[in-house]
Protein backbone atom coordinates (compact mmCIF):
# COMPACT_ATOMS: atom_id res chain seq x y z
CA UNK A 1 0.00 0.00 0.00
CA UNK A 2 1.47 3.29 -1.08
CA UNK A 3 0.79 6.96 -0.56
CA UNK A 4 0.51 9.22 -3.59
CA UNK A 5 1.10 12.77 -4.64
CA UNK A 6 -2.17 14.03 -6.10
CA UNK A 7 -1.53 17.71 -6.67
CA UNK A 8 1.24 20.29 -6.68
CA UNK A 9 1.36 24.05 -7.01
CA UNK A 10 3.93 26.83 -7.13
CA UNK A 11 3.34 30.50 -6.49
CA UNK A 12 4.59 33.08 -8.98
CA UNK A 13 8.27 32.80 -8.11
CA UNK A 14 10.49 35.83 -8.25
CA UNK A 15 13.27 37.93 -6.85
CA UNK A 16 12.33 40.84 -4.60
CA UNK A 17 8.65 40.24 -5.20
CA UNK A 18 7.73 42.28 -2.14
CA UNK A 19 4.80 39.90 -1.68
CA UNK A 20 4.30 38.44 1.78
CA UNK A 21 5.06 34.78 2.30
CA UNK A 22 1.40 34.01 2.98
CA UNK A 23 0.38 35.45 -0.39
CA UNK A 24 2.83 33.08 -2.06
CA UNK A 25 1.63 30.19 0.06
CA UNK A 26 -2.06 30.80 -0.58
CA UNK A 27 -1.45 31.00 -4.32
CA UNK A 28 0.54 27.77 -4.33
CA UNK A 29 -2.12 26.04 -2.22
CA UNK A 30 -4.92 27.13 -4.52
CA UNK A 31 -3.03 25.82 -7.53
CA UNK A 32 -2.19 22.51 -5.85
CA UNK A 33 -5.80 21.98 -4.80
CA UNK A 34 -6.97 22.75 -8.34
CA UNK A 35 -4.38 20.35 -9.75
CA UNK A 36 -5.69 17.59 -7.50
CA UNK A 37 -9.36 18.46 -7.91
CA UNK A 38 -9.66 18.94 -4.17
CA UNK A 39 -11.34 21.52 -1.99
CA UNK A 40 -9.66 23.01 1.08
CA UNK A 41 -12.24 21.15 3.17
CA UNK A 42 -10.70 17.90 1.89
CA UNK A 43 -7.35 18.79 3.47
CA UNK A 44 -7.08 17.22 6.90
CA UNK A 45 -3.33 17.24 7.41
CA UNK A 46 -0.48 19.72 7.08
CA UNK A 47 3.31 19.26 7.13
CA UNK A 48 6.24 21.55 6.49
CA UNK A 49 9.99 21.93 6.63
CA UNK A 50 11.45 23.30 8.81
CA UNK A 51 8.67 25.23 10.57
CA UNK A 52 8.69 28.90 11.36
CA UNK A 53 12.20 30.18 12.06
CA UNK A 54 13.91 33.53 12.01
CA UNK A 55 17.46 32.16 12.07
CA UNK A 56 18.17 33.62 8.66
CA UNK A 57 16.21 36.29 6.77
CA UNK A 58 13.15 34.90 4.99
CA UNK A 59 14.29 31.31 5.34
CA UNK A 60 11.04 30.01 6.78
CA UNK A 61 8.53 32.72 7.61
CA UNK A 62 5.51 30.40 7.96
CA UNK A 63 4.65 27.64 10.41
CA UNK A 64 1.79 25.19 10.21
CA UNK A 65 -0.31 27.20 12.66
CA UNK A 66 -0.40 30.35 10.58
CA UNK A 67 -1.10 28.44 7.39
CA UNK A 68 -3.90 26.46 9.02
CA UNK A 69 -5.45 29.71 10.20
CA UNK A 70 -4.99 31.57 6.91
CA UNK A 71 -6.41 28.78 4.77
CA UNK A 72 -9.13 27.93 7.27
CA UNK A 73 -8.03 24.32 7.56
CA UNK A 74 -9.44 21.84 10.06
CA UNK A 75 -6.75 19.20 10.45
CA UNK A 76 -6.34 15.83 12.11
CA UNK A 77 -2.58 15.80 11.63
CA UNK A 78 0.05 18.56 11.68
CA UNK A 79 3.80 18.50 11.86
CA UNK A 80 6.85 20.65 11.13
CA UNK A 81 10.11 18.79 10.60
CA UNK A 82 13.29 20.83 11.15
CA UNK A 83 15.45 17.83 11.91
CA UNK A 84 14.49 15.00 9.58
CA UNK A 85 15.80 13.43 6.39
CA UNK A 86 16.35 16.77 4.65
CA UNK A 87 13.79 19.09 3.12
CA UNK A 88 11.81 16.09 1.90
CA UNK A 89 10.97 15.06 5.45
CA UNK A 90 7.48 16.60 5.57
CA UNK A 91 6.47 14.68 2.45
CA UNK A 92 7.77 11.47 4.01
CA UNK A 93 5.94 12.21 7.24
CA UNK A 94 2.79 12.94 5.27
CA UNK A 95 3.09 9.59 3.48
CA UNK A 96 3.36 7.82 6.82
CA UNK A 97 0.45 9.85 8.19
CA UNK A 98 -1.93 8.88 5.39
CA UNK A 99 -0.81 5.24 5.49
CA UNK A 100 -1.48 5.02 9.23
CA UNK A 101 -4.89 6.66 8.96
CA UNK A 102 -3.99 9.97 10.58
CA UNK A 103 -5.22 11.93 7.58
CA UNK A 104 -6.50 11.52 4.02
CA UNK A 105 -5.00 14.50 2.22
CA UNK A 106 -1.94 16.24 3.68
CA UNK A 107 -0.89 19.66 2.44
CA UNK A 108 2.92 19.84 2.49
CA UNK A 109 4.46 23.24 2.01
CA UNK A 110 7.67 25.21 1.79
CA UNK A 111 7.58 28.99 1.69
CA UNK A 112 10.53 31.40 1.49
CA UNK A 113 11.00 35.12 1.10
CA UNK A 114 14.80 35.06 1.11
CA UNK A 115 15.09 37.45 -1.79
CA UNK A 116 12.91 40.20 -0.32
CA UNK A 117 14.25 39.69 3.19
CA UNK A 118 17.92 40.27 2.43
CA UNK A 119 19.47 43.57 3.40
CA UNK A 120 22.92 45.10 3.27
CA UNK A 121 23.65 43.74 6.73
CA UNK A 122 21.80 40.43 6.67
CA UNK A 123 22.06 38.04 3.77
CA UNK A 124 19.86 35.00 3.35
CA UNK A 125 21.27 31.73 4.69
CA UNK A 126 24.08 33.40 6.64
CA UNK A 127 23.90 32.66 10.36
CA UNK A 128 25.87 34.86 12.68
CA UNK A 129 25.34 38.10 10.85
CA UNK A 130 23.76 39.39 14.05
CA UNK A 131 25.55 39.76 17.33
CA UNK A 132 24.13 36.69 19.07
CA UNK A 133 26.41 33.77 19.81
CA UNK A 134 26.05 30.68 17.66
CA UNK A 135 24.86 27.40 19.16
CA UNK A 136 24.50 23.81 17.98
CA UNK A 137 26.37 22.37 15.02
CA UNK A 138 26.90 25.82 13.54
CA UNK A 139 29.05 26.70 16.54
CA UNK A 140 31.81 24.53 15.04
CA UNK A 141 31.64 26.30 11.68
CA UNK A 142 30.72 29.95 12.02
CA UNK A 143 33.46 31.11 14.44
CA UNK A 144 35.96 30.45 11.66
CA UNK A 145 33.76 32.29 9.20
CA UNK A 146 32.65 29.12 7.50
CA UNK A 147 29.27 30.79 7.57
CA UNK A 148 27.77 29.92 4.20
CA UNK A 149 26.75 26.51 2.89
CA UNK A 150 28.82 27.45 -0.16
CA UNK A 151 31.88 27.14 2.09
CA UNK A 152 30.87 23.68 3.33
CA UNK A 153 30.00 22.53 -0.19
CA UNK A 154 33.17 24.23 -1.41
CA UNK A 155 35.49 22.16 0.75
CA UNK A 156 33.66 18.97 -0.30
CA UNK A 157 34.05 19.98 -3.93
CA UNK A 158 37.76 20.72 -3.55
CA UNK A 159 38.36 17.24 -2.18
CA UNK A 160 36.14 15.50 -4.73
CA UNK A 161 37.83 17.31 -7.63
CA UNK A 162 41.24 16.38 -6.23
CA UNK A 163 40.38 12.69 -5.93
CA UNK A 164 38.43 12.15 -9.13
CA UNK A 165 39.47 14.80 -11.63
CA UNK A 166 36.14 16.57 -11.82
CA UNK A 167 36.79 20.06 -13.19
CA UNK A 168 35.10 23.42 -13.20
CA UNK A 169 34.01 22.62 -16.74
CA UNK A 170 32.04 19.61 -15.46
CA UNK A 171 30.32 21.77 -12.87
CA UNK A 172 29.73 24.29 -15.64
CA UNK A 173 27.99 21.63 -17.71
CA UNK A 174 25.57 21.11 -14.81
CA UNK A 175 24.83 24.83 -14.53
CA UNK A 176 24.66 25.46 -18.29
CA UNK A 177 22.49 22.39 -18.87
CA UNK A 178 20.01 23.33 -16.19
CA UNK A 179 19.85 26.88 -17.58
CA UNK A 180 18.94 25.38 -20.94
CA UNK A 181 16.05 23.59 -19.24
CA UNK A 182 15.03 26.82 -17.48
CA UNK A 183 14.69 28.57 -20.82
CA UNK A 184 11.83 26.13 -21.49
CA UNK A 185 10.20 26.73 -18.12
CA UNK A 186 8.08 29.88 -17.89
CA UNK A 187 8.12 29.65 -14.08
CA UNK A 188 11.94 29.71 -13.81
CA UNK A 189 13.55 32.81 -12.34
CA UNK A 190 16.71 32.82 -14.48
CA UNK A 191 15.69 32.91 -18.14
CA UNK A 192 18.73 34.36 -19.86
CA UNK A 193 20.90 31.86 -21.75
CA UNK A 194 24.09 30.85 -19.96
CA UNK A 195 27.15 29.67 -21.87
CA UNK A 196 30.32 27.99 -20.68
CA UNK A 197 32.45 31.10 -21.25
CA UNK A 198 30.19 33.20 -19.06
CA UNK A 199 30.15 30.44 -16.44
CA UNK A 200 33.95 30.22 -16.33
CA UNK A 201 34.31 34.00 -16.13
CA UNK A 202 31.91 34.38 -13.20
CA UNK A 203 33.19 35.61 -9.87
CA UNK A 204 34.34 33.01 -7.40
CA UNK A 205 32.25 32.55 -4.24
CA UNK A 206 34.03 29.76 -2.38
CA UNK A 207 36.49 27.85 -4.53
CA UNK A 208 35.91 25.94 -6.72
CA UNK A 209 32.32 27.18 -6.64
CA UNK A 210 31.52 30.34 -8.58
CA UNK A 211 28.35 32.39 -8.70
CA UNK A 212 26.61 30.02 -11.12
CA UNK A 213 27.37 27.01 -8.92
CA UNK A 214 25.14 28.47 -6.21
CA UNK A 215 21.36 28.35 -6.25
CA UNK A 216 19.28 31.50 -6.41
CA UNK A 217 17.50 32.91 -3.36
CA UNK A 218 13.94 33.81 -4.28
CA UNK A 219 10.51 34.52 -2.89
CA UNK A 220 8.04 31.75 -3.46
CA UNK A 221 6.06 28.84 -2.14
CA UNK A 222 5.47 25.27 -3.15
CA UNK A 223 2.62 23.01 -2.07
CA UNK A 224 2.59 19.27 -2.58
CA UNK A 225 -0.48 17.26 -1.58
CA UNK A 226 0.05 13.71 -0.33
CA UNK A 227 -3.00 11.47 -0.27
CA UNK A 228 -4.05 8.09 1.08
CA UNK A 229 -4.16 5.35 -1.59
CA UNK A 230 -7.93 5.06 -1.74
CA UNK A 231 -8.32 8.84 -1.69
CA UNK A 232 -5.74 9.28 -4.45
CA UNK A 233 -7.73 7.62 -7.18
CA UNK A 234 -10.36 9.45 -9.23
CA UNK A 235 -8.69 12.80 -8.74
CA UNK A 236 -8.08 15.24 -11.59
CA UNK A 237 -4.62 13.85 -12.29
CA UNK A 238 -3.19 10.36 -12.11
CA UNK A 239 -1.84 9.51 -8.66
CA UNK A 240 1.94 9.60 -8.47
CA UNK A 241 2.73 6.73 -6.15
CA UNK A 242 5.52 7.08 -3.63
CA UNK A 243 7.06 3.79 -4.69
CA UNK A 244 9.88 3.83 -2.14
CA UNK A 245 11.57 6.18 0.31
CA UNK A 246 15.04 6.18 1.83
CA UNK A 247 16.29 8.16 4.82
CA UNK A 248 19.25 6.19 6.15
CA UNK A 249 22.09 8.12 7.72
CA UNK A 250 25.23 6.18 8.60
CA UNK A 251 27.73 8.97 9.16
CA UNK A 252 28.13 11.86 11.59
CA UNK A 253 25.36 14.40 11.28
CA UNK A 254 27.69 17.32 10.67
CA UNK A 255 29.35 19.11 7.76
CA UNK A 256 32.80 18.88 9.34
CA UNK A 257 33.24 15.36 10.73
CA UNK A 258 32.25 13.19 7.75
CA UNK A 259 35.31 11.02 7.12
CA UNK A 260 34.75 10.64 3.38
CA UNK A 261 34.17 14.02 1.79
CA UNK A 262 33.43 12.49 -1.60
CA UNK A 263 30.14 10.93 -0.53
CA UNK A 264 27.13 12.43 1.21
CA UNK A 265 24.19 11.34 3.32
CA UNK A 266 22.59 10.91 -0.10
CA UNK A 267 24.47 7.66 -0.59
CA UNK A 268 22.94 6.13 2.53
CA UNK A 269 19.44 7.40 1.80
CA UNK A 270 19.37 6.32 -1.84
CA UNK A 271 20.78 2.87 -1.08
CA UNK A 272 18.01 2.32 1.44
CA UNK A 273 15.41 3.44 -1.09
CA UNK A 274 16.53 0.86 -3.65
CA UNK A 275 16.17 -1.92 -1.03
CA UNK A 276 12.43 -1.21 -0.96
CA UNK A 277 11.57 -1.53 -4.65
CA UNK A 278 12.07 -3.87 -7.58
CA UNK A 279 12.99 -0.98 -9.86
CA UNK A 280 16.63 -0.35 -10.72
CA UNK A 281 18.51 2.86 -11.51
CA UNK A 282 18.38 2.02 -15.22
CA UNK A 283 14.58 2.20 -15.04
CA UNK A 284 14.63 5.92 -14.21
CA UNK A 285 13.18 8.34 -16.73
CA UNK A 286 13.78 11.64 -14.98
CA UNK A 287 15.52 12.87 -11.83
CA UNK A 288 15.12 15.65 -9.31
CA UNK A 289 18.46 15.96 -7.51
CA UNK A 290 19.32 18.57 -4.94
CA UNK A 291 21.35 21.37 -6.48
CA UNK A 292 21.76 23.93 -3.76
CA UNK A 293 25.27 23.82 -5.22
CA UNK A 294 26.23 22.27 -8.54
CA UNK A 295 28.66 19.86 -6.87
CA UNK A 296 25.75 18.06 -5.21
CA UNK A 297 24.49 16.89 -8.61
CA UNK A 298 27.44 14.59 -9.44
CA UNK A 299 27.41 13.30 -5.87
CA UNK A 300 23.68 12.56 -6.09
CA UNK A 301 24.14 10.85 -9.48
CA UNK A 302 26.56 8.47 -7.82
CA UNK A 303 24.36 8.11 -4.75
CA UNK A 304 21.37 7.15 -6.88
CA UNK A 305 23.53 4.53 -8.58
CA UNK A 306 23.63 5.78 -12.16
CA UNK A 307 27.40 5.39 -12.17
CA UNK A 308 30.25 4.36 -9.90
CA UNK A 309 32.14 6.42 -7.36
CA UNK A 310 34.02 9.19 -9.14
CA UNK A 311 32.40 8.49 -12.52
CA UNK A 312 29.72 11.19 -12.52
CA UNK A 313 31.95 13.49 -14.54
CA UNK A 314 31.79 11.06 -17.45
CA UNK A 315 27.99 10.91 -17.29
CA UNK A 316 27.87 14.70 -17.23
CA UNK A 317 30.40 15.10 -20.05
CA UNK A 318 28.42 12.65 -22.18
CA UNK A 319 25.39 14.93 -21.94
CA UNK A 320 23.34 12.34 -20.07
CA UNK A 321 21.73 14.72 -17.59
CA UNK A 322 20.93 17.75 -19.75
CA UNK A 323 18.20 18.36 -22.34
CA UNK A 324 17.83 15.31 -24.55
CA UNK A 325 19.96 13.15 -22.27
CA UNK A 326 19.12 9.64 -21.11
CA UNK A 327 18.79 10.69 -17.46
CA UNK A 328 17.57 14.29 -17.45
CA UNK A 329 18.12 16.02 -14.11
CA UNK A 330 16.22 19.05 -12.81
CA UNK A 331 14.27 19.60 -16.00
CA UNK A 332 12.69 22.82 -14.75
CA UNK A 333 16.09 24.46 -14.34
CA UNK A 334 16.66 23.32 -10.77
CA UNK A 335 17.46 25.64 -7.94
CA UNK A 336 20.44 26.93 -9.92
CA UNK A 337 18.14 28.51 -12.50
CA UNK A 338 14.51 28.16 -11.41
CA UNK A 339 15.15 29.32 -7.84
CA UNK A 340 15.66 27.90 -4.36
CA UNK A 341 12.59 26.27 -2.86
CA UNK A 342 14.70 23.85 -0.84
CA UNK A 343 13.91 20.71 -2.79
CA UNK A 344 10.16 21.28 -3.08
CA UNK A 345 10.55 22.94 -6.48
CA UNK A 346 12.56 19.98 -7.75
CA UNK A 347 9.92 17.49 -6.61
CA UNK A 348 7.23 19.71 -8.13
CA UNK A 349 9.01 19.50 -11.47
CA UNK A 350 9.33 15.69 -11.24
CA UNK A 351 5.55 15.54 -10.77
CA UNK A 352 4.97 17.83 -13.76
CA UNK A 353 7.08 15.46 -15.86
CA UNK A 354 5.21 12.36 -14.67
CA UNK A 355 1.91 14.04 -15.49
CA UNK A 356 3.24 14.84 -18.97
CA UNK A 357 2.79 18.57 -18.50
CA UNK A 358 6.37 19.69 -19.13
CA UNK A 359 5.65 21.46 -22.41
CA UNK A 360 8.81 22.01 -24.46
CA UNK A 361 10.93 20.39 -21.77
CA UNK A 362 8.77 17.26 -21.41
CA UNK A 363 10.66 13.99 -21.22
CA UNK A 364 8.83 11.55 -23.46
CA UNK A 365 7.00 8.82 -21.61
CA UNK A 366 8.32 9.77 -18.18
CA UNK A 367 6.96 7.24 -15.72
CA UNK A 368 9.54 6.77 -12.98
CA UNK A 369 11.31 9.64 -11.21
CA UNK A 370 13.97 9.65 -8.52
CA UNK A 371 13.89 12.59 -6.15
CA UNK A 372 16.83 13.31 -3.87
CA UNK A 373 16.97 16.29 -1.55
CA UNK A 374 19.61 17.51 0.83
CA UNK A 375 23.32 18.08 0.56
CA UNK A 376 26.27 17.22 2.74
CA UNK A 377 25.46 14.94 5.63
CA UNK A 378 21.68 15.00 5.35
CA UNK A 379 19.44 13.50 2.69
CA UNK A 380 16.13 11.96 1.79
CA UNK A 381 15.23 10.17 -1.39
CA UNK A 382 12.09 8.82 -2.98
CA UNK A 383 10.85 7.18 -6.13
CA UNK A 384 7.68 8.50 -7.73
CA UNK A 385 5.80 6.20 -10.11
CA UNK A 386 2.96 6.83 -12.46
CA UNK A 387 0.97 3.67 -13.18
CA UNK B 1 53.09 36.93 0.51
CA UNK B 2 49.51 37.82 1.31
CA UNK B 3 48.99 37.69 5.02
CA UNK B 4 45.49 36.29 5.38
CA UNK B 5 44.41 37.65 8.72
CA UNK B 6 41.32 36.22 10.34
CA UNK B 7 38.19 38.36 9.98
CA UNK B 8 35.88 39.49 12.78
CA UNK B 9 34.28 36.46 14.30
CA UNK B 10 30.84 35.38 15.42
CA UNK B 11 31.55 33.47 18.61
CA UNK B 12 30.13 30.13 19.72
CA UNK B 13 27.84 29.42 22.62
CA UNK B 14 30.17 27.72 25.11
CA UNK B 15 28.90 24.96 27.38
CA UNK B 16 30.62 22.68 29.87
CA UNK B 17 31.56 20.23 27.13
CA UNK B 18 33.08 22.78 24.80
CA UNK B 19 34.58 25.23 27.31
CA UNK B 20 38.05 23.71 27.38
CA UNK B 21 38.26 23.58 23.58
CA UNK B 22 37.53 27.28 23.30
CA UNK B 23 39.66 28.45 26.26
CA UNK B 24 42.76 26.23 26.53
CA UNK B 25 44.47 28.33 23.91
CA UNK B 26 45.15 30.76 26.75
CA UNK B 27 47.87 28.32 27.78
CA UNK B 28 48.91 27.60 24.21
CA UNK B 29 47.22 24.21 24.33
CA UNK B 30 44.85 22.57 21.87
CA UNK B 31 42.60 20.29 23.91
CA UNK B 32 40.46 17.54 22.41
CA UNK B 33 38.12 15.24 24.34
CA UNK B 34 39.55 11.73 24.68
CA UNK B 35 38.22 8.46 26.03
CA UNK B 36 40.23 7.15 28.99
CA UNK B 37 39.12 3.58 28.26
CA UNK B 38 39.84 3.17 24.56
CA UNK B 39 41.96 6.27 23.84
CA UNK B 40 39.61 7.45 21.07
CA UNK B 41 39.46 11.20 20.48
CA UNK B 42 35.87 12.45 20.48
CA UNK B 43 35.02 15.64 18.62
CA UNK B 44 32.85 17.69 18.86
CA UNK B 45 33.29 17.20 22.62
CA UNK B 46 30.73 15.09 24.47
CA UNK B 47 31.23 13.28 27.77
CA UNK B 48 30.81 9.77 26.40
CA UNK B 49 32.61 7.62 23.87
CA UNK B 50 30.70 6.59 20.73
CA UNK B 51 33.21 3.77 20.20
CA UNK B 52 33.31 1.94 23.56
CA UNK B 53 30.39 3.57 25.42
CA UNK B 54 32.66 4.70 28.24
CA UNK B 55 31.67 7.78 30.22
CA UNK B 56 35.28 8.57 31.08
CA UNK B 57 35.87 11.15 28.40
CA UNK B 58 37.68 14.40 29.13
CA UNK B 59 39.74 17.07 27.41
CA UNK B 60 43.39 16.23 26.80
CA UNK B 61 46.21 18.26 25.28
CA UNK B 62 47.22 17.23 21.77
CA UNK B 63 50.30 18.23 19.80
CA UNK B 64 48.64 21.02 17.87
CA UNK B 65 49.98 19.54 14.65
CA UNK B 66 47.73 18.43 11.84
CA UNK B 67 47.26 18.11 8.10
CA UNK B 68 44.95 19.82 5.65
CA UNK B 69 42.27 17.35 4.52
CA UNK B 70 40.48 19.81 2.30
CA UNK B 71 39.99 23.53 1.91
CA UNK B 72 38.16 26.28 0.09
CA UNK B 73 39.08 29.89 -0.53
CA UNK B 74 36.18 32.12 0.39
CA UNK B 75 35.91 35.20 -1.80
CA UNK B 76 32.49 36.49 -0.84
CA UNK B 77 32.03 39.14 1.81
CA UNK B 78 29.09 37.61 3.66
CA UNK B 79 28.87 40.30 6.32
CA UNK B 80 30.01 43.91 6.22
CA UNK B 81 33.67 44.34 7.12
CA UNK B 82 34.65 40.74 6.42
CA UNK B 83 38.12 40.81 4.82
CA UNK B 84 38.35 38.48 1.83
CA UNK B 85 39.70 36.23 0.51
CA UNK B 86 40.42 33.82 3.31
CA UNK B 87 41.16 30.11 3.49
CA UNK B 88 38.79 27.71 5.22
CA UNK B 89 40.11 24.25 5.85
CA UNK B 90 39.33 20.99 7.53
CA UNK B 91 42.42 19.99 9.49
CA UNK B 92 42.83 16.44 10.76
CA UNK B 93 44.74 16.41 14.03
CA UNK B 94 47.99 14.47 13.96
CA UNK B 95 46.75 12.12 16.68
CA UNK B 96 43.62 10.90 14.84
CA UNK B 97 42.61 11.41 11.21
CA UNK B 98 38.88 11.53 11.77
CA UNK B 99 38.98 14.47 14.17
CA UNK B 100 38.46 17.37 11.79
CA UNK B 101 38.75 20.96 12.89
CA UNK B 102 37.11 23.68 10.85
CA UNK B 103 39.68 26.42 10.76
CA UNK B 104 41.45 29.14 8.82
CA UNK B 105 44.89 28.62 7.34
CA UNK B 106 46.81 31.80 8.01
CA UNK B 107 50.29 33.13 7.41
CA UNK B 108 50.46 31.93 3.84
CA UNK B 109 49.12 32.81 0.42
CA UNK B 110 45.78 31.08 -0.31
CA UNK B 111 47.36 29.54 -3.40
CA UNK B 112 49.96 27.85 -1.24
CA UNK B 113 47.47 25.69 0.67
CA UNK B 114 47.35 22.09 -0.50
CA UNK B 115 46.15 18.61 0.44
CA UNK B 116 48.14 17.02 3.22
CA UNK B 117 49.93 20.27 4.05
CA UNK B 118 51.46 20.09 7.53
CA UNK B 119 50.06 22.79 9.78
CA UNK B 120 50.34 23.85 13.42
CA UNK B 121 47.90 25.54 15.72
CA UNK B 122 47.96 29.07 17.03
CA UNK B 123 45.25 30.90 18.88
CA UNK B 124 43.45 34.14 18.35
CA UNK B 125 42.00 35.64 21.52
CA UNK B 126 38.48 37.01 21.03
CA UNK B 127 36.64 38.25 24.10
CA UNK B 128 37.07 35.46 26.68
CA UNK B 129 37.74 32.74 24.07
CA UNK B 130 40.78 31.52 22.14
CA UNK B 131 39.94 30.44 18.60
CA UNK B 132 42.28 27.74 17.21
CA UNK B 133 43.74 28.68 13.81
CA UNK B 134 46.44 26.92 11.84
CA UNK B 135 49.49 27.99 9.85
CA UNK B 136 51.96 26.04 7.74
CA UNK B 137 54.79 24.30 9.56
CA UNK B 138 57.89 26.03 8.23
CA UNK B 139 61.31 24.43 8.11
CA UNK B 140 63.55 25.74 10.88
Spell out the key features of this protein.
heterodimer; A: 387 residues; alpha/beta; Peroxisomal Thiolase, Chain A, domain 1; nine-stranded mixed sheet; two-stranded antiparallel ribbon; globular; B: 140 residues; mainly beta; OB fold (Dihydrolipoamide Acetyltransferase, E2P); five-stranded antiparallel sheet; 1 helix
Describe what you observe in this structure.
The complex is a heterodimer of chains A (387) and B (140). Chain A has 387 residues and is of the alpha/beta class. Chain A folds into two domains: 4-118 and 218-232, 3-Layer(aba) Sandwich (Peroxisomal Thiolase, Chain A, domain 1), CATH 3.40.47.10; 146-216 and 243-386, 3-Layer(aba) Sandwich (Peroxisomal Thiolase, Chain A, domain 1). Chain A is built from 13 helices and eleven strands. Chain A has helices at 21-36, 64-71, 89-99, 114-117, 149-164, 168-182, 196-201, 229-232, 265-274, 296-304, 312-317, 334-337, 344-354, and strands at 4-10, 45-48, 77-80, 105-113, 204-206, 209-210, 219-227, 240-246, 286-289, 368-373, 380-386. In chain A, helix 9 packs parallel to helix 10. Chain A is globular and about 55 Å long. Chain A starts with a strand and ends with a strand. The model of chain A has no long low-confidence stretch (mean pLDDT 96). With 140 residues, chain B is mostly beta strands. Chain B has one domain: OB fold (Dihydrolipoamide Acetyltransferase, E2P), CATH 2.40.50.840. Chain B has one helix and eight strands; from the N terminus they run H-E-E-E-E-E-E-E-E. Chain B has a five-stranded antiparallel sheet with strand order 6-5-4-7-8. In chain B, strand 5 and strand 6 (96-104) form a beta hairpin. The radius of gyration of chain B is 16 Å and the shape is globular. The model of chain B has no long low-confidence stretch (mean pLDDT 93). At the A-B interface, helix 5 and strand 5 of A face strand 4, strand 5 and strand 6 of B.
Amino acid sequence: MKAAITGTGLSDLGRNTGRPAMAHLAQAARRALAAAGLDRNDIDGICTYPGKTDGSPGQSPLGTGEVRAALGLQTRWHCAVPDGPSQMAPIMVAAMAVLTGQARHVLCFRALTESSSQSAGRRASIPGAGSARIGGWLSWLVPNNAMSASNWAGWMATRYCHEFGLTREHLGMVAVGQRAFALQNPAAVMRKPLGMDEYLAARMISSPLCLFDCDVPIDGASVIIVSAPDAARDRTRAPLWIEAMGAALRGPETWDQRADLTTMGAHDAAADMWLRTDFKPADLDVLALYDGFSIFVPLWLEAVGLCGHGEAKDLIAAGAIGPGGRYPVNTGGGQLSAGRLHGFGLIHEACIQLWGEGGNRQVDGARLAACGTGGGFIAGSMLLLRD
Amino acid sequence: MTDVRPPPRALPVVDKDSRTFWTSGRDGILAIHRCKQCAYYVHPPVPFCPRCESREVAPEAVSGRGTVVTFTVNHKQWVPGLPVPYVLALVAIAEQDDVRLVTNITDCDPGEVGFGMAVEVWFEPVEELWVPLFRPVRGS
